[in-house]
Write a structure and sequence with these properties.
The chain folds into two domains: about 1-10 and about 15-220 and about 240-335 and about 345-360, no CATH class; about 435-555, Transcription Regulator spoIIAA (2-Layer Sandwich). The chain starts with 6 loop residues before the first helix and ends with a helix. Strand 5, helix 23 and strand 6 form a beta-alpha-beta unit. With about 550 residues, it is mostly helical. It has helices spanning about 5-15, 20-45, 50-65, 80-115, 125-140, 145-150, 160-170, 175-195, 200-215, 220-225, 245-275, 280-295, 305-315, 320-335, 345-360, 365-370, 375-390, 395-415, 420-425, 435, 460-470, 490-505, 515-525, 540-555, and strands spanning about 75, 305, 445-450, 475-480, 505-510, 535. It has 24 helices and six strands.
């Protein structure tokens, strides 16, 4: 039952002291400062009032930390939900969103109990990058009206009609609103470049609010758009369920659950890489499900693990789930004693924040890198991206995964080789490989052999093997003679493995790399001028180089 034990329970059993609490409290306050403007901005972008985002960050953020399977995960509303939430509210009202989120919470709990968390690794990188970039474009598009101060009564929900409406109203640009938005955007960009440790989002909206209030600028603020916004936490209640509503909202519930599950587990993987921890994927899904049920009880939005806030939490020194709980408590204090200040925040400043959120979500560098991959990966990426923007997120994910699976099967049929026993016996490298691979291996050298194609379904196995050895070698030999092909996810895995080893101070030697994998690796600049990476024609040559490197390190 270890896999179903929340990390909070594990850390408490290990012993918790004031030193840990101090580190967690500082990290929690740091994350709360980042989460405050983000939670409001994401709620507004989703078609809800800003208080809904704060309530979600408090309730779901606390529950994700106490029931989740990661030590340092921070949860709350995220950009991935904006499109789905906006559409559900537009079609079914806010009550419909609560019902869909309630069902999504139950689906996540069931997924965790049935140990579906490990299946997330079968979602290909081009699909994830495609729909994430598509969501980023939609979020940025949704903020054009507030950023420019356009006079538009009704903005179409569809992407192309929305831009037609924007161009039709371009003559109504409000110069003062545009200047406030540009000023907030400039502050965020400047702080990221020259003072990245400062909370750029919070500083930008504070400066924008002060300027607008002191100069009494005629720009729209949270207070003018949401004059009746409640303060404090609402009394808990559950949505009224009916069979007709359940059937009608079930597809939306599955979409919310899918997005919550994949983003939470991706965030947990990122956290493991940064903090050197190991999350429990199925317990994380259960924690996400409980958190979404709790968010619904207080009228909040869907929630999941937030990669940016989790990374901030780790960089700020978080040690245990208490940091995420403290982040929620600090936000609660703001709701109780400072929510009246929200009324002064200009909508253009929040639009500037969401532009930066969209840019971060787009993963532009990874998107461009995937465009350099073979036509099959590029087709999956662009199709998922286009369908997300122009059709529907659910359709985009379904089509993307289906197409990736079909292309994978086609690639596998081309790489299957049938050899008889005699030909294997005559292979001088393969003959005694399993028997003597580790013979004559220096103490500070580790060797791995990859056999078969490295694709999106097995891309994480090598990283797991690296973690299991329990020590950091000086040299790692990666035998790739039996790898006939790499896809985009396989290249990403090799790149992450090399980076992880390099951060640990290990040299990497790749031996026997075939033509297709080598071509794929050269597309990301390997070996290039990167220190600590070498290519050798075969294993004996790699072993000889490893011995030389260990001897030179000792001397």
């Amino acid at each position: 039952m270890q896999s179903f034990t929340p990390k909070f329970v594990t850390t408490m059993r290990e012993g918790y002291n004031f030193s840990l609490y101090k580190a967690d409290a500082i990290a929690g306050l740091t994350v709360a400062i980042v989460a405050l403007p983000l939670s409001m901005a994401l709620a507004i972008a989703s078609g809800a009032s800003p208080d809904k985002g704060l309530v979600t960050a408090v309730i779901a953020g606390f529950l994700i930390s106490i029931f989740g399977g990661s030590r340092v995960q921070v949860g709350g509303p995220t950009g991935a939900f904006v499109v789905v939430v906006f559409n559900v509210i537009a079609l079914h009202g806010y009550d419909g969103l609560l019902i869909a989120t309630f069902m999504a919470g139950l689906i996540l709990i069931a997924a965790g109990l049935f140990k579906i968390g490990r299946l997330i690794k079968f979602i290909p990188h081009p699909v994830v990058t495609g729909f994430t970039a598509g969501i980023a474009v939609i979020i940025a598009t949704s903020q054009v009206k507030d950023f420019l101060g356009l006079s538009l009564e009704n903005v179409p929900a569809e992407f192309l009609p929305k831009w037609q409406a924007y161009f039709g109203a371009i003559s109504s640009v409000h110069i003062m609103t545009l200047l406030v938005g540009l000023g907030a955007l400039a502050v965020i960009v400047a702080l990221r470049k020259f003072a990245p440790k400062l909370p750029g989002f919070l500083i930008a909206i504070m400066l924008a609010s002060v300027v607008v209030a002191l100069l009494q600028l005629p720009v729209e603020t949270i207070g003018t758009r949401f004059p009746d916004m409640p303060s404090g936490l609402p009394m808990p209640s559950l949505p009224v369920l009916s069979w007709a509503k359940i059937v009608e909202l079930l597809p939306s519930a599955f979409t919310i659950a899918f997005l919550a599950g994949i983003e939470a587990l991706l965030s947990a993987v990122v956290a493991d890489g940064m903090a050197g921890t190991r999350h429990r994927s199925n317990q994380e899904l259960i924690g996400q499900g409980i958190a979404n049920l709790g968010s619904v009880a207080f009228g909040g939005l869907p929630a999941t693990g937030a990669i940016a806030r989790t990374a901030t939490n780790i960089k700020a020194g978080a040690r245990t789930p208490v940091a995420g709980m403290m982040h929620a408590l600090f936000l609660l204090l703001f709701i109780l004693f400072g929510s009246d200040l929200m009324a002064y925040v200009p909508m253009a400043a929040l639009a500037a924040i969401l532009f930066m959120v969209a840019w971060g979500m787009s993963e532009f560098d990874r998107f461009v890198a995937l465009l350099r991959m073979p036509n099959s990966d590029r087709a999956v990426l662009l199709l998922t991206f286009g369908l997300t923007i122009l059709v529907d997120l659910t359709v985009a994910i379904g089509v993307g995964v289906t197409l990736a699976s079909l292309l994978f099967m086609a690639r596998m049929s081309e790489t299957v080789q049938l050899e008889d026993g005699k030909s294997l016996d005559r292979d001088p490298e393969l003959d005694g490989e399993d028997l003597d691979q580790r013979d004559d291996l220096p103490e500070d050298v580790e060797v791995f052999r990859i056999s078969g194609p490295v694709f999106f379904g097995v891309a994480g196995e090598l990283l797991d093997a690296m973690r299991k050895i329990g020590r950091t070698p000086k040299v790692v030999i990666l035998r790739m003679r039996l790898v006939p092909m790499l896809d985009a996810s396989g290249v990403t895995m090799i790149e992450e493995f090399i980076e992880q080893a390099r951060v640990s101070g290990a040299r990497i030697i790749l031996s026997g790399v075939q033509s297709q994998p080598r071509e794929m690796l050269t597309r990301i600049g390997l070996p290039g001028n990167q220190s600590g990476i070498s290519f050798e024609t075969d294993y004996p040559a790699a072993l000889q180089l490893a011995k030389q490197l260990t001897k030179s390190a000792e001397s």
